[in-house]
Amino acid sequence: MTTEVFISGTSGVLGIETLMHLRERTSLTLMGLSRRAPPIFRPDLPNTQVDSVFDATWMTEADQNATIVHYAGLANPRAQFDSIEDLFKREISPQIHMVERLLDRGWRGHLIYVSSGGAVYGDVDTLPISEDHPPSPKSFYALQKLNVENALQFLANQFKFRLTILRVANPYGSHIPKPGQGVIPILLNAATTGTEFTIIGSGEELRDYVYISDLCRAIETLCLEPLPSDINTINIGSGIGTSLNQLIDIVVSLTGSTLNIRRSCTRFDVKSNVLDVSRAKNLLNWTPRIGIREGVASMVADVAALRSGLNAKDGTFGTP
Q1: Can you give the CATH number for the domain in which 20 is found?
Q2: Residues forming beta bridges with residue 34, ordered by sequence position
Q3: Cβ atoms of residues 66 and 3 within 8 Å
């Protein structure tokens, strides 16, 4: 059977959420790819564990026009490396090698690369940030994303496959518990357990938070409908800035908790970062549906359900 969409990195939350979304909302033939077991067990989900996603041995001749949603790669925005050379060797080169191997095997389909608009643009003076703004990475994570973007654009120009680069804001709202990943889950944990919560910076810097189902809807559209050009870079976010202090107020008002807060400085975080999502609206007919308060309220309900020992219906609770 021909696979229409591969999703790499389904051992991560975003990858498995995308696989679940497409499984439930489309009739596409899907396959998730992961080196480790996915973070949630769903026997109905088509997923295969491979020794390495990057060796591309999972691609067959029958799948040479498939769409690949590529999440696999460095996931920790605060990861540190000994040098840029070390970063290239460990994180950038394997991803480029994967696409080169796919091309060697005859693949000429559509690659959707999930990049980070919250990282690659760096510090900017004017908000919101459009796709035409020059990137200015400030972390190894952002440098990794940008270099993979550039290499993929070079390969797409040379070999004429379709490429869509999604510069995604800060995704949140997954019902899958992943301790220590994402400011909102960490904040909710602090609110419910009394754990100390650290505010890095003033707490007034703005961030763009996009609900997981909104991100998955954008990917769904890209998997189903071709875009007018072969290479596109598209921001996916809410288009609205929310400060950490505002998030704290939302969580406190929804949970009735008080927070144990301390403050810290950092040299890696960017200043306020809010994405211009007008290109996504124009090209994909896509707009975000879930606002920050509604999204956080859904996560609060998830936490309450877990603490009460309730099970999620069909493994999908928390998605409005």
Answers
A1: 3.40.50.720
A2: 49
A3: yes
Burial label for 53, CB within 10 Å (0-12, 13-18, 19+), is: buried
101-143: pLDDT as tens digits: 999 999 999 999 999 998 999 989 899 999 999 999 999 999 9
pLDDT digits (tens, 9 = 90+) for 291-303: 999 999 999 998 7
Which range of residues forms the domain containing residue 267? 5-315
Cβ–Cβ under 8 Å, residues 290 and 214:
yes
Pairing of strands 231-236, 261-264: unpaired
Which residues partner with 67 through β-bridges?
A: 5, 110
76/32 Cα distance (integer angstroms): 21
Rounded Cα–Cα distance for residues 306 and 301 (Å)? 9
320 falls within a domain: no
CB 103 within 8 A of CB 159: yes
Distance CA 209, CA 246 (A): 12
**Residue 58 in contact with residue 48, Cβ under 8 Å?**
yes
**Helices H / strands E in the chain, number of each:** 10, 12
The count of domains in the chain is 1
What is the number of alpha carbons within 13 Å of residue 307 lying toward its C-beta? 11
Pairing between strand 162-168 and 231-236?
parallel
The residues, ordered by sequence, that sit 6+ positions from 222 with a Cβ below 8 Å of its Cβ are: 67, 110, 112, 164, 166, 284
d(CA 167, CA 150): 13
β-bridge partners, 259: none
Q: Is the pTM of this model over 0.85?
A: yes
Spatial contact of 33 and 7, defined as CB atoms under 8 Å apart: yes
